[in-house]
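Notes, p. 3: input format for complexes.
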Amino acid sequence: MMQDELKQLVAREALTYVRGGIVGVGSGSTVNFFIDALATIKGRIDGAVAASEASAARLRKHGIEVLELNDVSEVPVYVDGADEITERLYMIKGGGGALTREKVVAAVAQKFVCICDASKLVPVLGKFPLPVEVIPMARSHVGRELARRGAEPELRLNYKTDNGNLILDCRGLSIVDPPALESELNQIAGVVTNGIFARRPADVLLLATAEGVRTLGPLPL
Ligand code: 5RP
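Output follows (221 residues plus ribulose-5-phosphate):
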């Protein structure tokens, strides 16, 4: 199966977690397939909250109402992809630059369903460059602080987040304790969010393989 077929397969499987109400929608190419699948059951939901302007535009194109997160009291399910994920369901996200809004919607959601193809499952996070969103005037300071921690930060060129900020992509990190590093990096002045999703990991991973979709829950600690 081609990678896009795997993404489509897992995106369709995620529909089984949608039980009406408001659906939280992440961003990225796998989520785009989920949005297309969600359109086929749009009559059964009240609308969506989106983690990026791009996802909001795609939802609207399908005639799905997009609500502001501030106007919503609960998000029963949030569906999003990942750049890397471990068996503990810790993730690196933000390859598409939407990490901050993704983390906010994930924080509100009762259930986070991560949808990936099998290439995203890794034993240790860090091969994928860790995105860190920074406010523009703090770029150099945050870059130095990240370098002090062993990272090789690189400014994402010609890129601004939906929040008007910059992204530093950090190579060279082997993330052995994701919750600890997530907290530590968030303490650097000027960091808006980093792309480690470990303090609020996914609840379920739907992993598309050539043999079909595997469902993984988190390993016990
Ligand atoms: C965007 C993300 C995406 O979920 C992540 O980049 C995966 O994207 P794709 O499904 O295109 O591989 O975190 O900020």
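The mean pLDDT is 97.
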